[in-house]
């Protein structure tokens, strides 16, 4: 008879997590290095008891908001390139629901995080308990069912023995390159307290290694045949390149084969800005260089990208005759828009593709065209970033100053609003894997929390977080978290008086400014928040600056400080770095406004250029 150990379900769950390991850069490290938690009546009596007993092995970090602490876990996973995973735990009810948005961020971005929420009583004896949402026709439903829409794995433990089968399945999803995303497990309060005789073998240490799927030989041969016929090939490097560790292999492949390399939002930073094959970001927030090449390319080699609308210009960025080869660990992402789906790990597939191409290279004229277009784009960037006598600086100028002062390894983080487009265009990556723009979900509030998680993931570099005033107002509490836990970030707040970039879209489609900029909202009197004073009240060091010269000096100062440092600057709400890709959005088919009707007609005309596919 096998040996057993009697533990509560919560104690057994925690012990299992403590015995999962992985290998990062040749070293054995915990797969789950920590837990973010806000305790409530669904997790404070049992799960917290189990976590307290291992607090030196599996550290618990207290969040300020369930959404933000789970976003910190997402930022941690991204900084670790999916090789280590944080846990986030909440109580039942509103605490759990607060975490749903963060689950959506992880799901859209294919990032691993383990979410554990308290749940109501399986025995239903005390029903309805505080914070229980009752469904009259189905008493098995509660708020935790909301996670089903935004997680890759979902379970509710209704018997203590079930974790023996559930936890390995959750870990399997978290580590699967093709199915990677958040895993959620609901922990009913009465089941957490139950004791069970668990087999000791369940807690034996396990070292996990992320699998690398090889591509099908026939599909690879088809890809080789298509590339050999290409006259104007273009590589699109996505986030999967970084998660696979294929950055160097793809960069070398592009340079050796003379193929221009463009980047998606998630893929930016796989190569440095000045890499010989690099031609800039592609799509709606992309460069004129990459978009010009995309429009003429006859073969698109998409590596590790889900080809979202911001990458494809809502599928107008490419010639209708262009052929797509999609290399992706996930079948779903590979099989899009009539692409030749080469399902496999990015690193393994690129290396096999390189070996199979023999002496083939793209035509020299096409390679030179990429170099020429990118040189023009860099000249344009210099012009956008050049200081002027205007009293209020543009985003491009602000980004240019911060970029110039940033160290080679400093990590840039942003997510929503006007900054993603501006940093995608204006931020020149100096070292691989130093750029994080969360745009899979474009979640306002990700930025500061992700900075906390990223600082925790790698204490040898300082995250530089850039946000607008709207994002600061939405989610700023983790400024306090970073100070409390001694995880320094540098936060740049660009105050442009509201939700400026969405105001831009509203105006562009014929509606005058309404409910976006503070001055256009139903308010008694517009006024500006002193973000520096607010952040100072949370323990940060702060400085308000008025000019680009002052900004540069402030960034230099921020790099010398011993804690989170916040710099605020007023920025232009109406001047943006130009972009030339089309975007499909809904525009009213009828309106009293001539401008709206004209915008609708233009939108309909633009749709005629969309590539037909699924």
From TrEMBL:
Gene3D superfamilies: 3.40.50.970, TPP-binding domain (3.40.50.1220)
Ranges of residues in domain Thiamine pyrophosphate enzyme central: 220-353
Top-level lineage group: Bacteria
Domain Thiamine pyrophosphate enzyme N-terminal TPP-binding residue range list: 35-131
Pfam families linked to this entry: TPP_enzyme_C, TPP_enzyme_M, TPP_enzyme_N
InterPro entries the UniProt entry points to: DHS-like_NAD/FAD-binding_dom (IPR029035), Myo_inos_IolD (IPR030817), THDP-binding (IPR029061), Thiamin_PyroP_enz_cen_dom (IPR012000), Thiamin_PyroP_enz_TPP-bd_dom (IPR012001), TPP_enz (IPR045229), TPP_enzyme_TPP-bd (IPR011766)
Keyword Glycoprotein: no
Keyword Transcription regulation: no
Keyword terms: Thiamine pyrophosphate
Start and end residues of each Thiamine pyrophosphate enzyme TPP-binding domain: 418-568
Family designation: Belongs to the TPP enzyme family.
Protein name: 3D-(3,5/4)-trihydroxycyclohexane-1,2-dione acylhydrolase (Decyclizing)
Lineage of origin: Bacteria, Pseudomonadati, Pseudomonadota, Alphaproteobacteria, Hyphomicrobiales
């Amino acid at each position: 008879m096998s040996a057993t150990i009697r533990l509560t379900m919560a104690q057994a769950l925690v012990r299992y997590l403590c015995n999962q390991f992985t290998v990062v850069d040749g070293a054995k490290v915990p797969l789950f290095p920590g837990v973010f938690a806000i305790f409530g009546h669904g997790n404070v009596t049992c799960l917290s008891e189990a976590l307290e007993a291992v607090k030196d092995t599996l550290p618990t970090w207290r969040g300020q908001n369930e959404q933000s602490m789970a976003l910190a876990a997402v930022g941690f996973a991204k900084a670790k390139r999916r090789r280590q995973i944080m846990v986030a735990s909440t109580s039942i009810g509103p605490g759990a629901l607060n975490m749903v948005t963060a689950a959506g961020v992880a799901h859209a971005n294919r990032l691993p995080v383990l979410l554990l929420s308290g749940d109501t009583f399986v025995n239903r004896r005390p029903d309805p308990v505080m914070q229980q949402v009752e469904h009259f026709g189905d008493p098995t439903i509660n708020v935790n069912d909301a996670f089903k829409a935004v997680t890759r794995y979902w379970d509710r433990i209704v018997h203590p023995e079930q974790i023996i089968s559930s936890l390995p399945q959750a870990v399997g999803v978290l580590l699967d390159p093709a199915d990677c995303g958040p895993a959620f497990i609901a922990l009913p309060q009465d089941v957490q307290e139950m004791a069970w005789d668990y087999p000791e073998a369940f807690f034996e240490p396990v070292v996990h290694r992320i699998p690398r799927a090889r591509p099908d030989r026939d599909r690879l041969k088809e890809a080789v045949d298509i590339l050999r016929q290409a006259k104007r090939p273009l590589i699109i490097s996505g986030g999967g390149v970084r998660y696979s560790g294929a950055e160097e292999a793809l960069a070398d492949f592009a340079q050796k084969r003379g193929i221009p390399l463009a980047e998606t939002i998630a893929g930016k930073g796989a190569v440095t800005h000045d890499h010989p094959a690099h031609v800039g970001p592609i799509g709606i927030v992309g460069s004129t260089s990459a978009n010009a090449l995309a429009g003429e390319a006859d073969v698109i080699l998409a590596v590790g990208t889900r080809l979202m609308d911001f990458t494809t210009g809502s599928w107008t960025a490419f010639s209708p005759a262009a052929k797509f080869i999609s290399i992706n660990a996930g079948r779903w992402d590979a099989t899009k828009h009539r692409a030749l789906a080469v399902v496999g790990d990015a690193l393994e597939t690129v290396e096999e593709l390189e070996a199979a191409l023999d002496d083939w290279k793209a035509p020299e004229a096409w390679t030179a065209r990429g170099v020429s277009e990118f040189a023009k784009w860099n000249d344009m960037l210099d012009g956008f970033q050049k200081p002027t006598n205007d009293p209020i600086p543009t985003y491009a100028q602000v980004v240019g100053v911060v970029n110039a002062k940033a160290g080679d390894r400093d990590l840039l983080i942003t997510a929503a609003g006007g900054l993603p487009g501006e940093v995608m265009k204006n931020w020149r990556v100096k070292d691989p894997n130093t750029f994080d723009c969360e745009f899979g979900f474009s979640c306002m509030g990700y930025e500061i929390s992700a900075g906390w998680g990223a600082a925790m993931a790698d204490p040898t570099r300082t995250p530089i977080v850039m946000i607008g005033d709207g994002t600061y107002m939405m989610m700023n509490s983790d400024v306090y978290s970073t100070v409390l836990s001694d995880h320094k970030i540098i936060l740049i707040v660009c105050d442009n008086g509201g939700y400026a970039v969405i105001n831009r879209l509203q105006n562009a489609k014929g509606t005058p400014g309404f409910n976006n900029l503070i001055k256009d909202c139903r308010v008694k009197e517009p006024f500006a928040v002193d973000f520096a004073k607010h952040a100072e009240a949370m323990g940060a060091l702060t400085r308000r600056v008025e000019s680009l010269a002052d900004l540069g000096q402030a960034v230099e100062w921020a790099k010398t400080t011993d804690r989170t440092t916040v710099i605020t600057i007023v920025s232009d709400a109406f001047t943006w770095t130009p972009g030339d890709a089309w975007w499909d959005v809904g525009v009213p088919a009828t309106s009293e406004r001539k401008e709206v009707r004209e915008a609708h007609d233009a939108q309909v005309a633009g749709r005629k250029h969309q590539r037909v596919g699924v």
